[in-house]
Amino acid sequence: MNVRFKISAISLAATTIFQLTLPVKSAETTQLKPLNGVKIGNIKYLNSETLPDEKLEQAILRDHLSDYNEINPKNYIRYYYNRIDLNNDNQSEIIVYLVGSYVCGSGGCNALIYTTKGQDYQLVSRHTLVNPPILITPQTNSGWKNLVFLTRGGGAKPEYNLMSFNGRNYPSNPSLQPAVPANTTLTGIGLFADSLTSPGIRLKPLNQS
After folding, report:
1. Residues 65-93: tens digit of each pLDDT
2. d(CA 192, CA 183)
3. Do residues 175 and 161 lie in contact, with contact meaning Cβ atoms separated by under 8 Å?
4. Is 141 exposed, middle or buried (0-12, 13-18, 19+ CB in 10 A)?
5. Considering the entire predicted model, what is its pTM?
6. CA 159 from chain center: how many Å?
7. For the chain, what is the HEC assignment?
């Protein structure tokens, strides 16, 4: 089933303008901060990959943005991605963060998680209301590492939410998942720490060269 999270431009204008007009300052990173009694421990922050991945772009368009070619190309989407092993099988999964009016709202943007299958990418899960950085923790559930997402905006109280693998995928909406308890110390790897200060990679519609 091709489920696509598409938010109206009217409710997203402020967020989109902010994200698309920031200057590029690659030396700066976005880091997690103590919140609601949750402490921040040793976190290694990674910037996103900088080289376009054509097969990944095809997978994104196939699985999540099949009608992206129908919108104004000026309202383009940019993407960020990192490769990291989430299930200890010595094969990297690919986590994608999408930014643009088509995929973002006041509560955050969309993200996708892929695994490799032969020479192709296979979708594991889709996510809404994503705010970077995404934290990859050392703890696991059903053999996959737990994730922590920061939810905020859209009138919601800011909090860290635990995203645990259920045997098939990760939950799509972090705001519906359990909040990380107070006095927890977060550790692990933070992804997309540069997404607010670097241009990312432009995702071209299928009919664009």
Report:
1. 988 865 666 678 999 999 999 999 999 99
2. 25
3. yes
4. middle
5. 0.84
6. 16
7. CCCCCCCCHHHHHHHHHHHHCCCCCCCCCCCCCCECCEEEEEEEEECCCCCCCHHHHHHHHHHCCCCHHHCCCCCCEEEEEEEECCCCCCCCEEEEEEECCCCEECCEEEEEEEEEECCEEEEEEEEEEECCCEEEEEEEECCEEEEEEEEEECCEEEEEEEECCCCCCCCCCHHHCCECCCCCEEEEEEECCCCCCCCCEEECCCCCC
Cβ atoms of 145 and 139 within 8 Å: the answer is: yes
> Average per-residue pLDDT in the chain?
86
* Residue type present at position 186: L
- In single-letter form, the type of residue at position 22 comes to L
Whole-number Å distance between alpha carbons of 9 and 24: 24
What one-letter code names the amino acid at 121?
Y
Residue 160 to residues 5, 21, 24, 147, 150: CA-CA distances in angstroms? 22, 27, 27, 10, 5
- To which residue do tokens 């989109």 refer? 16
- Residue 11's pLDDT band, with cuts at 50, 70 and 90, is very low
pLDDT in tens, 134-191: 999 999 999 999 999 999 987 778 999 999 999 999 999 999 999 999 999 999 999 9
